[in-house]
Amino acid sequence: NMKKGYWGTFFSFITGDRYIQDGFLNHSEDNLKFNVFECNHNKWKRVEPQVKSWLNDRLPIWLETEADWLNAAQKAMIPDDMVSDPAILAAIRGKEVVAIVEKRRTLTIVPGLGLGV
């Protein structure tokens, strides 16, 4: 039996969407805010304008300072339409990143049907 005082630590009425959106809005560290891209876009669509603004403000800084947490796998998570500057998009779409994106696309094809999952 669980003590009633602990029940609140196991349950929450916050939806998954809200949890992801709050995670982006409330974190101050860029590498933690970036985790929003690991989630389904529909989960954070409500805060997409804020995500896009933040991303376009921070990308030049990350590229200039060569942020150690921003590797090829993270760059591959960034949707093309989220980057406003074509030069910055080209900078994050190096050969290694393109290979990761293409591999991900290939893995989501249903064999024999040619349909994405």
Number of strands: 2
Number of helices: 7
Task: Estimate what percentage of residues fall within beta strands.
Answer: under 5%
Strand line-up across the major sheet: 1-2
Radius of gyration: 18 Å
**Major sheet attributes:** 2 strands, antiparallel
Structural class: mainly alpha
Shape: elongated
- Mean pLDDT across the residues is 86
- Distance N to C terminus: 43 Å
Order of helices and strands: HHHHHHHEE
Essential attributes:
single chain; 117 residues; two-stranded antiparallel ribbon; 7 helices; elongated
How would you describe the overall organization of this protein?
This protein is mainly alpha-helical. The protein has seven helices and two strands; from the N terminus they run αααααααββ. A two-stranded antiparallel ribbon has the order 1-2. The mean pLDDT is 86.
Write the layout of secondary structure elements.
Layout (H helix, E strand, L loop, with lengths): L15 H11 L3 H4 L7 H4 L3 H18 L6 H6 L8 H7 L2 H13 L1 E2 L4 E2 L1
Antiparallel strand pairs: 1-2
Give a nutshell description of this structure.
With 117 residues, the chain is mainly α.
